[in-house]
Amino acid sequence: MTGWEPDVLPGYWQRSLPLGADPDGEGTLVATVVARGEPAAHPARAVLLVHGYTDYFFHTDLADHFAGRGFAVYALDLPKCGRSRRDGQTPHFTSNLAHYDSALAAALDAIGAADVLVYGHSAGGLIVTLWLDRLRRRRATGPISGLVLNSPFFDLHGPAILRTPPTSAALIALARLRKMQVVRKPTPGGYGTTLHRDYAGEFEYNLEWKPVGGFPVTFGWINAIRRGQKRLHRGLDVGVPSLILRSDRSVAEAGDPDLIQRGDAVLDVAQIARWSGCVGHRLTVVPIIDAKHDVFLSVAEPRSAAYRELDSWLDWYLRTGTSSTTPHSG
């Protein structure tokens, strides 16, 4: 139990992971690994949950579900996010997604499991996918044996001009000159209002760590995301079997409030579908009818469907591990 202390969530424990100086010049970085229940010294099988932008770990229902399937459950609040952000640090800012590799490696060491399933949502899905490809190329995947992605951030949402070479070149230049300049301010919170109990949602979480309108997006961060996406589009190989869950539709965040409850108001699901094959290895892709951006924070029916699809894949994963037989694909 050395280094572990009670977490803000009842029944959970946390451990701060010092990472040294921030490459982006915002002081000293830490990450925080969170454990469901008292951490075991060397669990046989664990899952590591990694959040997206304007997010942190709070989803105890998802943790309970994985625990019910026999996993020791751990989550990581990345540097400058949630539990890990320190005074003077820009929320969620990084200029390079590879800067997260040290936090992810430290989390694996802290967990100490013989077998690890990695889970990533939205930007976290892009981050862990790139990380696993780098590990595979170094032949250093270690205990990681599977990957689950929940609406991964595989391309920029919006007009096609945002994804053209001239726009990319301009973004690189702006990121070099004005990396901390805000390119998108927080919104009134269309998607966020469908989640939190104080608005139209079902879930309770810290609104300072996950504001309903999101954190500001900077040129430096969006350039880091775009570089990671372009690397993905050239094709990766994560080296382990993967499951990708997403909604079956995208909806306008500023549209009908009822529609926002039954679609992805953050990303273009057609882009997720287009680029999913670039993850490599054995892949299962499942669209969930009426799911939100976080499929496990959807309203009851699609949320249940998402858990059923997760269980179907886990049945195969736990039975066959890394065998060459693939389950269904979509």
From TrEMBL:
GO terms for molecular function: hydrolase activity. The keyword Hydrolase applies. Transmembrane segments: none annotated. This is Alpha/beta hydrolase. InterPro entries: AB_hydrolase_fold, Hydrolase_4, MAG_DAG_Lipase. It holds the Pfam family Hydrolase_4. It comes from Mycobacterium adipatum. The keyword RNA-binding does not apply. Residues 42-247 form the Serine aminopeptidase S33 domain. Keywords: Hydrolase.
